[in-house]
Amino acid sequence: MKAVFRHELATYFTGLTGYVFGAFLLLFGGIYTMVICLNAGSANFEYVLSNLSFIFLIIVPILTMRVIAEEKRQKTDQLLYSLPLSMTGVTLGKYAAMVVIFLIPTGVLCVYPLLLTAFGSIYLPAVFSTVVGFVFLGAALLAIGMFLSSITESQVIAAVVGFVILFLCYVESGIANFFPEGAGSSFFA
Description:
single chain, mainly alpha
């Protein structure tokens, strides 16, 4: 598992995928921090993370589209089958590498509220508990994207289907509000 983890982590940093993911997340994190906390004068960094969760619709499919689909397309998945690892170990190694790539820019985002304390009082326990929820949301969406990458050989199809599924998850509660009470409650919880 460690060998797969190190290989995947090196792949993200030798190509542009890891850098683009981190730059995109930090760019929009900085924009939302400027607009919500600095321009609007709000001391709630939680709103930044709430708005940033919409950006996951774009960046998670970009990060996860190649993780298994590329292995299938190039037929290198046969090499993974021959490793002295179970497929669970291979999958966990690939997933752990994606989570690390997600945690690096999230760790940088954790510095933003500390910098904002110079401009006002921010309730840091609420901020960092929101960051924990943000990490869990990101990890769950990465798992969904990885699953969708495993059912196709095409990176483009994995990215498009990933975007559609994540978009449906994002608007699910809004769709449920259109139904009368009890009519869609079994489908839209």
